[in-house]
Amino acid sequence: MKTISDHILDISQNSVKASANLIEIIVREVWNDDLYLLEIRDDGCGMTPETAARAQEPFFTSRNTRKVGLGLPLLKQNAEQTGGSMEIRSELGKGTTVMAQFGYSHIDRPALGDMAGVFLLLAIGHPGTGFRYDHFTPEGAFSISTAELLEILGEVPLKTPEIMAGIRELILTNLMEIKATI
Amino acid sequence: MSKITSLADLKKMKEQVQANLKLRENSDASDTLVQIKVGMATCGIASGAKETMTFLVEETSHQAIDAVVTQTGCMGFCYAEPTVEITLPGKEPVVFGYVDKARAREIIDRYIIKGELVDGIIPVNFRTIDEK
Hints:
Low-confidence stretches of chain B: none
Strand content of chain A: 25-35%
Strand content of chain B: 15-25%
Distance between the termini of chain B: 55 Å
Strand order of the largest sheet of chain B: 2-1-3-4-5
Oligomer: heterodimer
Radius of gyration of chain B: 17 Å
Order of helices and strands of chain A: HEEHHEEHEEHH
């Protein structure tokens, strides 16, 4: 995974598989403490503490098409390489939260990457699931959700090229406004 | 058009788009709808499935193909990622492997539009990595 947004796209698939109705993606840049925090929170089926612990191992997966599951271990590795860590909080029947902490100024901290593209692909690729993305920096906050977008768009599909370009511009200009590190 | 910086701007834009939208909504969706599923697990993303899916969404829209592009998990053909499953109306699903942008264009132009067979189909008797 080359960028933080790649990880977001990847980890969100776990939440979709866990039948989540709402997946919340939160990025927090805490410049003073030199921290870059990523949180992916879902209201899916959750895991037992044993499963949550095993999910961090590369040779654990809940699927049966293959024997490896690298999504979480790769995120963990990337976070640890920057002096950070990864933590999974999960409760059966309630949902799961994956938290990764990166060293903000560490040279190995991946860039956010194409977050607008990832948000659009998640929204289009999983029509039955709600997504919300929050980005906080010391300069301000930005938030966007599929619920508010769908309400505005009505019967106009999200994948209409003009609409996709508009949403992309909306996300990018607002991230620039709060001086988010892209 | 002015820059989109808020949801209100987006709403204005949507109203303009809506006025120009082609009236193909009233056609009966189920017998013309092409279903496209892009494998978007760790293996897919690492091989560029994100670019493939973006291209498929944009290109089917541009060509006004009645298609729904969704994401799915790993189909077990990790060595052939990005993989894409396409179901033409009334046909069996077909899985294509190694679908980069160029292959995606070929699949749209030849398989989806003309119904021709294209190289790179993963046959049903192929084995997933676990069965190898």
